[in-house]
Write a structure and sequence with these properties.
It is a single chain. By secondary structure, the protein is α/β, with parallel strands linked by helices. It has a single domain, classed as TIM Barrel (Alpha-Beta Barrel). It has an eight-stranded parallel beta barrel with strand order 1-2-4-5-6-7-8-9, surrounded by five helices. Strand 8, helix 9 and strand 9 form a beta-alpha-beta unit. The longest helix is centred in the middle third of the chain and has 12 residues. The chain is globular. The C terminus is likely disordered.
């Protein structure tokens, strides 16, 4: 499957974890609504909970964003959705709530975080998206998750996340994340590579589009823009850089 010429992946800037800023925490409903108000695509992250639900949250551990200890996968959805984000009134959303909030108004780039129950995880994400009317694509660092996406829903656009220096514990996992050896089997439609590692000749092969993450300042944006098909960003406004929180077009 080729990426359509009018796909958001070919050039609609993507707000990393929503268009968050001071007072509007990442992966919150407020950050998603702010991205919609600017017309940006939204990048977000999903996890499988202890009771088999899908929630929107980035870290494996709860501490940084909620002040709670423990792993996301060890809590139920009911427990997680009561936790506040970044000391605000915003709470961890269910994936279904997130989809209902955006409701097709802007495209979505959804990262599936690592989980040992890969087949179940992918199946449940796909079930949530089955009747979703908006444009979206899926991505993951884990090529085994990408393999499940290809197996269960080959028609859905899928991307391989990668970087040169990941935080993976094992040397083998770091090698996999850097060199993407499973791409010949998974055939990702796009590669999403760390912006700090570009240019990188292995990042763009076999006709896949190249995105980069995460651009956080004007200089970096101007450096990588000629090298990639699209940019995942924070803190800046690609068309008019350094917009401050609360300013809208």
């Amino acid at each position: 499957m080729n990426i359509p010429a009018d796909s958001f992946l070919r050039g609609t800037p993507v707000a990393h974890r929503g268009y968050h800023c001071k007072g509007i925490p990442e992966n919150s409903m407020a950050a998603f609504e702010r991205a919609v108000s600017f017309g940006y695509a939204i990048e977000t992250d999903v996890h499988l909970t202890k009771d088999g639900q899908i929630i929107v949250f980035h870290d494996d551990d709860l501490a940084r964003m909620t002040g709670e200890s423990g792993l996301v996968r060890d809590r139920t959805a009911a427990e997680l959705t009561q936790l506040h984000l970044g000391g605000t009134e915003e709470r961890i959303p269910l994936f279904s709530e997130f989809l209902g909030k955006v409701n097709g108004r802007v495209p979505l780039l959804i990262e599936l975080k690592g989980d040992p129950n890969r087949a179940e995880f992918v199946a449940k994400v796909l079930a949530e998206l089955k009747d979703y009317k908006g444009e979206f694509a899926l991505q993951s660092f884990d090529p085994r998750i990408l393999r499940q996406i290809k197996k269960q829903a080959p028609h859905i656009l899928r991307g391989q996340l990668a970087c040169k220096n990941s935080g993976q514990k094992s040397a083998f996992s770091r090698w996999v994340v850097r060199f993407m050896p499973m791409n010949f089997l998974n055939k990702p439609h796009f590669i999403s590579y760390c912006s700090a590692d570009l240019p990188y000749r292995r990042a763009k092969r076999r006709g896949a589009l190249l995105l980069c993450w995460t651009v956080r300042n004007e200089d970096e944006y101007l450096r990588v823009k000629p090298l990639v098909d699209n940019v995942i960003f924070e803190n800046i406004r690609p068309e008019q850089l350094y917009v401050t929180c609360g300013q809208h077009r």
